């Protein structure tokens, strides 16, 4: 896989980095926006417990339900109780849901579960593992995808990417039509309003947030920012620094559907979801926030620009980390969510080139964090 991966990665990285550079040159405000987002995230990081409670109260005030899951197991159980059994569940895109093993858990409960992000869908039908946090099927060529569609779905449409995407869209549209529950992640969550912001290009997240009668958001507590303006700004910055600016869609979900068309009295629900649930996941994040080195990892907005300039990730792909958390950012997030022991074997592979720090919009000292993980891991191994 290595040579094939390296060529696929090279093409993807060159294209993405060029698009990022072009966006930053053309739209000068993006750098300023990134600086403001960093300040907003630092504010929450320094007062995390306060903002968690503020977010929960805000969600309740707009007719939703909010939960705090201390562990991955807690997150699975909370969502499992909401979903129940025998349902059709469509996932938007949520690395946090992958982190806690939610898809497998719901399937084991007897639900029909589908990933609807094209990359995640490809990985799912291939019984595979993601190779990138935003483009999970980056390790597969168009020929690989065409073969999967033929063998797993009975769809023979050739290997043209546009035809493959259209075929997947038709297949998944039928799943959306009968879905009982939509589960998404969040690019950002506004503490002042309880609103969840997602940025995307495919339209699948939009469908998952409005078509099923129940919408569940599963997201880490680090996605909280003080205001709705901060949340929208963060989503824009994430898209820009990944190389997909402007994004095709920017969605705000704030509670169950509503209408004010009768005497301007706002009532819920309306034509969209009848229920809105926000499951905030800790799973090591609050502990990391108290660590003088690891806390900086929580500033990450998951643009994965760092991965595009990392020589180790370029060389070995998803072996630098553990899916869904791969690449330089993945090593940090393994340590946050699963501990030093889980992240250590990947941290020792780091070449400390420093490229990741140079391109990070949140100015995270990624090499220092990975060095800390490596040193902590090796010191434990030698005792």
What is the element string, with H for helices and E for strands?
HHHEHEHHEHHHEEEHEEHEEHHHEEHHHH
Q: How many independent structural domains?
A: 2
Task: Assess the beta-strand content as a share of residues.
Answer: 5-15%
Instruction: Give the name of the CATH superfamily of the largest domain.
Output: NagB/RpiA/CoA transferase-like
Average pLDDT reading: 96
Shape: globular
CATH architecture of the largest domain, by name, is 3-Layer(aba) Sandwich
Question: Given this structure, which CATH class of the largest domain is correct?
Answer: Alpha Beta
Discrete helix count: 18
N→C terminal distance: 36 Å
Structural class: alpha/beta
The radius of gyration is 20 Å
Largest sheet: 6 strands, parallel
Work out the number of β strands: 12
Helix content: 40-55%
For the largest beta sheet, what order do the strands appear in spatially?
A: 1-10-7-4-2-3
Which regions are unreliable across 5 or more consecutive residues at pLDDT < 50? Answer: none
CATH topology of the largest domain: Rossmann fold
């Amino acid at each position: 896989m290595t040579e094939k991966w390296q060529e696929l990665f090279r093409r993807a990285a060159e294209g993405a980095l060029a698009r990022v550079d072009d966006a930053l040159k053309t739209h000068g405000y993006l750098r300023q926006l990134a600086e403001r987002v960093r300040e907003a995230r630092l504010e929450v990081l320094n007062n995390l417990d306060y903002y968690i409670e503020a977010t929960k109260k805000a969600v309740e005030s707009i007719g939703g339900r909010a939960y705090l899951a201390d562990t991955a197991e807690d997150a699975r159980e909370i969502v499992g109780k909401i979903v129940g059994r025998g349902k059709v569940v469509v996932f938007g895109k949520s690395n946090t849901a992958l982190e806690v093993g939610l898809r497998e858990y719901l399937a084991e409960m007897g639900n029909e579960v589908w990933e609807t992000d094209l990359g995640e869908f490809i990985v799912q039908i291939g019984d595979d593992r993601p190779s990138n946090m935003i483009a999970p099927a980056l390790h597969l060529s168009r020929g690989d995808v065409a073969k999967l569609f033929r063998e797993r779905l009975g769809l023979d449409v050739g290997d043209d990417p546009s035809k493959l995407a259209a075929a997947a869209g038709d297949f998944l549209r039928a799943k959306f039509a009968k879905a009982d529950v939509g589960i998404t992640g969040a690019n950002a969550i506004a503490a002042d309003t309880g609103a969840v912001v997602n940025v995307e290009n495919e339209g699948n997240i939009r469908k998952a947030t409005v078509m099923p009668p129940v919408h569940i958001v599963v997201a880490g507590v680090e996605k909280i920012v003080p205001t709705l303006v901060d949340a929208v700004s963060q989503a824009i910055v994430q898209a820009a620094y990944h190389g997909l600016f402007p994004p095709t869609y920017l969605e705000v979900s704030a509670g169950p559907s509503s209408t004010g068309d009768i005497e301007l009295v706002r009532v819920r629900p309306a034509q969209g979801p009848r229920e809105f649930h926000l499951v905030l996941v800790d799973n090591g994040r609050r502990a990391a926030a108290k660590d003088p080195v690891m806390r900086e990892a929580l500033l990450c907005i998951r643009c994965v620009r760092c991965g595009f300039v990392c020589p180790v990730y370029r060389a070995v792909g998803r072996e630098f980390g553990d899916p869904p958390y791969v690449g330089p950012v993945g090593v940090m997030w393994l340590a946050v969510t699963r501990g030093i022991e889980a992240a250590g074997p990947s941290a020792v592979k780091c070449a400390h080139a420093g490229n990741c720090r140079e391109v990070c919009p949140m100015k995270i000292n990624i090499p220092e964090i990975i060095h800390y993980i490596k040193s902590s891991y090796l010191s434990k191994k030698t005792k």
